[in-house]
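[audit] Reproducing an earlier prediction to check determinism. Same input, same settings, fresh worker. If the tokens differ from the archived copy the diff job will pick it up downstream; this log only records the rerun itself.
[audit] input (119 residues):
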Amino acid sequence: MPAIQPARLKIQAAQLAEKFTDPPAFTLGLNELLEFYADRTYRPGQASDPQPLLKAYNVPTPVLRQVSKELSKFIVANQDAALALCDALWSKPVLEFRLLAAMVLVRSLSSRWRIFSFE
């Protein structure tokens, strides 16, 4: 796992977010990003943690947070594409894909609720 360089991560996440409306290309790009930042030294089960049920890259939290942040402007603009992306992400049996799908879904729902707020 390389050290996280915030400027580089921001560029990588922005390039990935541009593929927002093309779920197959997005999932491929996300897989490459996760491979780049994967922690290959982590061995589950050695520190009393149970074996994971899903494959996990064990990327640092800032990686998924930055991808989610870059996606937020696209989610607000195109909520139907956000739901399609959620489906594509959730279909992959990888922990980080499913975490990102949940993040996208929450952002999509929260932006819909703001539209219908009574303020």
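[audit] rerun output stored. Observation attached for the diff report: The mean pLDDT is 87.
[audit] end
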